[in-house]
Recover the amino acids of this structure.
């Protein structure tokens, strides 16, 4: 199976062939997978070098000139390092782009903290008008990338990861999917967290919603789910814990409810190793998730939250 | 008053001080505003192929004011050329006015980018030049105006170092040099652009003929920078 990042390169190379508005802007990262695009579309496939402020600024200029730029590097250098360019050159200029990141929260644990970006979605939450897709499988990444590029001049973030579910689901670029139905709580699994959530909730009487488009947050789906499963809600996100807690609270503002936001902790681990070890360290493996979900739906609040 | 009504009146260079005088409240940026006046006038009067009617045309020349501080001279020139009504000028900086102390492209006709945070215009201009080239619009020129102290911002150097080797010959930068950078060496600005493969000219930023000659000098295969020297800000 190819990775989401492999799929990104092949899909965007095809989109360059299909749509003359599409451009891709890179900053060295993943450039080795775009050699065919550089050859076929030298003016619309651009590598600006290791220059991330220019990466986003140039994308803004391309959008203002009428193109639909797809902009890519690691999340830490796409959202965090040039954050002011994201805020001003896209938001304030009223220019659209599709930002596609790799690396996620800890795809490369041996790379350490410099290449970890658990705060990317939370940072984008400080800005207006961003659509955020978090695919959990390469097939979903392809679907969501196509939605993102086709979304007019919208500002769209697509968060790719090496973490992937065993099978892709029929995502539509808008709605949460209902994967399992129960009566004692709703668990929202985001993107690559789905398989761990399904294993963790095996035999539990909970509804599992699957979210791959997290902004806008599908408040309707959550409200519908709580009608039969009750208003104990657990969010399991592959980035900073609590990133969507406010969105879930807003969705349920008119009913008494409880929300537990699980995800990547704030504290820097200063550990290398494998990403499975990092998942466990943040309590995102199936066993830890099951413990915390069970405690919470029984009315308690798990330690460390 | 509509923009159309206002356009029936024409203004010349001699009217600019009076138009600028209609704006008050940004005295902090006063020297920054006048340092750009002659550069802006020569560009809009004799170089840029854009007017109120073509402000959204795909083939227009683009002018991106990167140095958004002290935009009174910019607004005065835009008013003189009919992009916006002179009647807007007295409202400068007020809640209901489209004219802020830093410009907003979504509020003002003819303004290509919002600026104010330094170091954004040149990278956006690079992208605009790339975007036009990718659409086979080889005729429109892209201009951006930066200040000498604005070049302190590292984002400019990402753009300068890329644009030369990329051969963006429709890209033009004017550096208005009023010696406001705290750390600078004589000749350093042009040298940095030249080292990156730009064609560079340094002229008197108050001399309209010299500015025009520099702005229209051929620079095949290379982007052009014109360093327009004006009286030092702190003299």
């Amino acid at each position: 199976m190819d990775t989401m990042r492999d799929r990104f390169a092949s899909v965007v190379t095809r989109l360059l062939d299909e749509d003359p508005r599409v451009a891709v802007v890179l900053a060295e990262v993943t450039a080795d997978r775009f050699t065919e695009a550089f050859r076929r579309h030298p003016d619309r496939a651009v590598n600006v070098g290791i220059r991330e402020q220019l990466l986003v600024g140039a994308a803004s200029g391309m959008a203002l000139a009428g193109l639909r730029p797809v902009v890519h590097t690691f999340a830490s250098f796409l959202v965090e390092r040039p954050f002011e360019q994201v805020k001003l050159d896209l938001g304030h200029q009223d220019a659209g782009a599709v930002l596609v990141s790799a690396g996620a929260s800890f795809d490369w644990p041996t790379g350490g903290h410099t290449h970890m970006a658990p705060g990317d979605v939370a940072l984008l939450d400080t800005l207006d008008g961003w659509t955020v897709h978090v695919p959990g499988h390469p097939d979903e990444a392809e679907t969501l990338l196509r939605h993102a590029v086709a979304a007019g001049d919208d500002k769209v973030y697509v968060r790719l990861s090496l973490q992937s579910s065993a099978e892709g689901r029929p995502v539509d670029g808008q709605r949460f999917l209902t994967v399992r139905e129960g009566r004692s709580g709703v668990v929202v699994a985001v993107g690559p967290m789905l398989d761990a959530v399904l294993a963790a909730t095996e035999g539990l009487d909970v509804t599992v919603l699957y979210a791959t488009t997290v902004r806008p947050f599908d408040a309707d789906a959550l409200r519908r789910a709580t009608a039969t499963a009750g208003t104990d809600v657990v969010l399991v996100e592959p980035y900073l814990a609590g990133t969507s807690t406010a969105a879930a609270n807003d969705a349920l503002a008119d009913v008494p409810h409880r929300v537990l936001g699980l995800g990547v902790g704030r504290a820097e681990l200063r550990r290398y190793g494998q990403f499975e070890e990092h998942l466990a360290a943040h309590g995102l493996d199936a066993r830890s998730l099951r413990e915390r979900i069970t405690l919470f739906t029984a009315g308690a609040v798990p330690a460390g939250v | 008053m509509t923009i159309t009504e206002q356009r029936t009146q024409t203004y010349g260079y001699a009217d600019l001080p009076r138009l600028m005088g209609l704006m008050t409240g940004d005295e902090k940026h006063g020297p920054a505003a006048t340092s750009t006046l002659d550069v802006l006038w020569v560009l809009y009067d004799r170089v840029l192929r854009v007017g109120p009617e073509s402000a959204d045309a795909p083939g227009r020349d683009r002018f991106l004011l990167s140095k958004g501080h002290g935009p009174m001279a910019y607004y005065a020139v835009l008013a003189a050329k009919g992009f916006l009504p002179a009647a807007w000028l007295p409202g400068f900086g007020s809640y209901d006015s489209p004219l802020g102390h830093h410009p907003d492209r979504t509020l003002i006709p003819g303004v290509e980018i919002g600026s104010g945070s330094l170091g954004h215009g040149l990278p956006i201009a690079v992208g605009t030049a790339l975007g036009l080239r990718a659409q086979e619009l080889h005729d429109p020129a892209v201009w951006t105006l930066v200040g000498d102290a604005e070049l302190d911002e590292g984002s400019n150097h990402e753009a300068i170092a890329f644009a030369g080797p990329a051969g963006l010959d429709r890209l033009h930068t004017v550096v208005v040099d009023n010696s406001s950078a705290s750390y600078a060496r004589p000749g350093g600005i042009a040298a940095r652009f030249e080292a990156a493969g730009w064609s560079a000219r340094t002229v008197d930023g108050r001399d309209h003929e010299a500015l025009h000659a520099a702005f229209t000098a051929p620079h095949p295969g290379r982007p052009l920078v014109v360093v327009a020297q004006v009286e030092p800000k702190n003299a």
Remarks:
- The mean pLDDT of chain A is 97.
- Residues 109 and 272 of chain A are 5 Å apart (CA to CA).
- Chain A touches chain B through 31 residues (CB under 8 Å).
